Amino acid sequence: MEQKDTEMHEKGVSSSTSGVVVQVREKKGPLRAAIPYMPFPVAVICLFLNTFVPGLGTFVSAFTVLCGARTDLPDRHVCCVFWLNIAAAFIQILTAVVMVGWIMSIFWGMDMVILASYREQAAAQQL
């Protein structure tokens, strides 16, 4: 065991007992990063809309950006992020005919709910 740890330290690799913390960050594309952090009830409504009318919830979420919802694109102008969300909604609507847009729309709504829960958890931790 000691020989294995020694070899790992020589190669620059830490063993699991050394306490090294690895941080993983998800790389998001521009459309995915444009999903706004909305209040939880609004995100659930958008998920519901996306489930039954593909793209409608994404279209509604685009307007929350104009109302001040934060996104993962802080360097982009609000209008640019708004149009990215509108583009995502139209992609979902146009490809719903072959079921791809409908599935994409449901996953988009689930991402909205996940981001809203992150937002609420962060707000609860600040209190």
TrEMBL record:
GO terms for cellular component: membrane. Keywords: Membrane, Transmembrane, Transmembrane helix. It comes from the Eukaryota. It is a multi-pass membrane protein. The keyword Transmembrane applies. The chain crosses the membrane at residues 40-69, 81-108. It is found in: Membrane. InterPro entries: SPEC3/Stum. This is Stum, mechanosensory transduction mediator homolog. It comes from Astyanax mexicanus (Blind cave fish).
